[in-house]
Each structure stands twice: as structure tokens, then as C-alpha cells.
């Protein structure tokens, strides 16, 4: 019997929020050795070497030998090299692979290093409060922020202030940022934008440009044709670990759950089945769906749906607006998960 995501209201302990700040399952096995630089793009091999050196400078005992101490600070370790690394480049050049590899290569217990997206970090601050979030992370050796986003000034200032406090506490930082589709040349200025936004932190970061084929040249991926309501319902009924929801009901329910709990919302779910996907009409709902898409993608949960195809989930106005980078990413990820769901439609012999 499928469960309903719209019927779940998970409670998440602080320890879990912090404990889940690790690379997602999709990046469990990545390492610097599994990143294959393009010989035509020397910046890729150069980035690997620089990050390997950065990771080597993070070693040493420190802390309490691996005992969990989310809210206790540790003595500052003597640091060598830059306090932060910023990976600047377009879509599809392997920045997240390299950031996760840095996390894995850092010789420290998991509770002394954190990995999360910009959205997850802002959600953590929202769930804990600013001061508790600083206390919780200030004992870390490394904090990695994937997809640092410059489309929301309030969030950018919030996280910039948080990173300043962590850097002052001796925490090393690493961040990535994608360039926006459809804005020619922005990749050349993303690093400058990042440095301007974080102002006082700029002197502590080394910027690495990673060149390569840019996602912008491919545009929006074409989503597979949606299924019928009957096909979705039938497939959900025979799929172990299925969650079956009507899209409008799920979209409304997400407004009642803090985004930091969307991961817990998906606990035990092996596949998501959605009936009646509609184009989203308001920004708040759209942004919540972006977070849900990220959590499903991180967990490699296929999504089988009826209604509108996912490349029409957001209106043309939204795809041209200030949050378009988030929406392009969500469409790309939901489309990939919809393709993965093709196997669920086949009736077992």
C-alpha cells in the first residue's frame, strides 16, 4: 500500500539535521581519483591538484578525537594555505564531484566536517537560529557549500555572515556556484560577484575557475511524456516503497512542513508517484518544490507522474526571473528522475 507524502509531518532532531550534512548518496563513492579531467581543459586538472593540497592542509587530530560535540568548540588548528576555496564554473563541469571529493579526502571524523547546499544551510539556520547554528558548526574543520546562490540578497547576507563567524573560529570553507543559463559571459563574473557579496571574507578565499562544456548550451532538457492517472496509480500499487500523491495536495502540504524536514518527508520512500502535475502559479510554492526536487535527486528516488511534463512545471516568466537558476536545476533533476521512472511503468512478466 503506497504511503502519502501529504500525510506526513516529520519531526527532525537537531542532531539529525547536522548529521545529514554529508555528501548525498549520489556522491558517496566519488573521489579525486574518480574525477576524469578533460585534457582539453587544463583548469580541471589544476583544480584537482589545488583541492588535494587544500585537503592535505586540513589533517590532524584536533577536537575530541571523534566524539560527537555538535555544540562544543575545539581548539583552533594551525592552518596553512587559504582559509577558503571557491569553485567557479558552469553547469556540468564536475564542481559538486570535486567538492564532495574534498569532503571525503579531509582527514577528520564526519562530525567535524559538513557538506550541504546553500539552501540546506539557510534551512539549518532557520531551524536552529543563527547563534545555535554558529555554535553547532564552529567546531568543524571544514564546511562545504554547494550551489552558493546570489539570487536572494537576504539569504546571501545571512550565509555570508555565518561564514565570517565560522572562518573567525578557524573553520575552513569551500563553496561552488553555477552560472545562470541564458546570460552570456556570466561565468566570467561569478567569482567577482561572490567576492563582493561576502566582502570581508574575500581575502580568505582562493578562486578556482573550472572550464568545460557549459550546461547553458544545452538549454532545458526535454522531459519524457507524462503517464495517465491510471498508469501512475497502477504502478504505485505494485512498487515497494511507493509514495502516491495528487500533485495539488502535495504542493499545498509542503507549505506546512519546514524545508529542513523535506529529507525526513522522504524517509523509506523508494519511488514517488504524482497524479495531475500542474504548472506552478506562485513563487513560494515553486521554491518549495525546488527543495523537494533536490532531496529526491540526492536520494536517487525516481518520479513517475501524470499531467504536465516537468519542463512545463515553471512558467516562462519564472524561468526568466530572479530565481531561474533554481528552476532550471529543478527541471533538470526532475526530468532525470522521470526518465529513471520509465522502468516502473513496465509490467513485470
UniProtKB/TrEMBL annotation:
Transmembrane segments: none annotated. One of its GO terms (cellular component) is cytoplasm. The keyword GTP-binding does not apply. GO terms for molecular function: ATP binding; ATP hydrolysis activity. Keywords: ATP-binding, Cell cycle, Cell division, Nucleotide-binding. Pfam families: AFG1_ATPase (PF03969). InterPro entries: ATPase_AFG1-like, P-loop_NTPase. One of its GO terms (biological process) is cell division. PANTHER family: AFG1-LIKE ATPASE (PTHR12169:SF6), ATPASE N2B (PTHR12169). This is Cell division protein ZapE. It comes from Actinacidiphila guanduensis. The lineage of its organism: Bacteria, Bacillati, Actinomycetota, Actinomycetes, Kitasatosporales.
Amino acid at each position: 500500500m503506497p504511503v502519502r507524502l501529504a500525510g506526513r509531518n516529520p519531526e527532525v532532531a537537531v542532531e539529525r539535521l547536522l548529521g545529514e550534512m554529508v555528501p548525498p548518496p549520489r556522491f558517496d563513492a566519488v573521489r579525486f581519483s574518480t574525477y576524469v579531467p578533460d585534457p582539453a581543459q587544463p583548469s580541471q586538472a589544476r583544480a584537482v591538484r589545488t583541492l588535494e593540497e587544500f585537503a592535505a592542509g586540513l589533517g590532524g587530530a584536533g577536537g575530541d578525537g571523534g566524539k560527537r560535540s555538535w555544540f562544543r568548540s575545539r581548539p583552533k588548528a594551525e592552518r596553512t594555505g587559504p582559509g577558503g576555496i571557491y569553485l567557479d564554473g558552469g553547469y556540468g563541469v564536475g564542481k559538486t564531484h570535486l567538492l564532495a571529493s574534498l569532503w571525503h579526502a579531509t582527514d577528520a571524523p564526519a562530525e567535524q566536517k559538513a557538506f550541504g547546499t546553500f539552501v540546506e544551510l539557510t534551512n539549518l539556520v532557520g531551524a536552529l537560529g543563527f547563534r545555535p547554528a554558529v555554535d553547532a558548526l564552529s567546531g568543524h574543520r571544514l564546511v562545504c557549500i554547494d550551489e552558493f546562490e546570489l539570487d536572494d540578497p537576504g539569504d546571501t547576507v545571512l550565509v555570508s555572515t555565518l561564514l565570517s563567524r565560522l572562518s573567525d573560529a578557524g573553520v575552513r570553507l569551500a563553496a561552488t556556484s553555477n552560472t545562470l543559463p541564458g546570460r552570456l559571459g556570466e561565468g566570467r563574473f561569478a567569482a567577482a560577484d561572490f567576492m563582493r557579496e561576502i566582502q570581508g571574507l574575500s581575502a580568505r578565499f582562493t578562486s578556482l575557475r573550472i572550464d568545460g562544456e557549459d550546461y547553458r548550451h544545452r538549454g532545458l532538457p526535454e522531459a519524457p511524456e507524462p503517464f495517465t492517472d491510471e498508469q501512475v496509480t497502477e504502478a504505485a500499487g505494485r512498487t515497494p516503497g511507493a509514495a502516491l500523491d495528487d500533485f495539488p495536495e502535495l504542493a499545498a502540504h509542503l507549505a506546512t512542513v519546514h524545508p529542513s524536514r523535506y529529507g525526513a518527508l522522504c524517509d523509506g520512500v523508494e519511488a514517488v508517484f504524482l497524479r495531475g502535475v500542474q504548472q506552478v502559479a506562485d513563487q513560494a510554492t515553486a521554491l518549495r518544490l525546488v527543495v523537494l526536487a533536490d532531496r529526491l535527486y540526492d536520494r536517487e528516488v525516481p518520479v513517475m507522474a501524470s499531467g504536465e511534463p516537468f519542463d512545463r512545471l515553471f512558467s516562462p516568466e519564472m524561468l526568466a526571473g530572479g530565481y531561474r537558476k533554481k528552476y532550471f536545476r529543478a527541471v533538470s533533476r526532475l526530468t532525470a528522475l522521470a526518465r529513471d521512472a520509465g522502468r516502473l511503468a513496465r509490467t513485470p512478466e
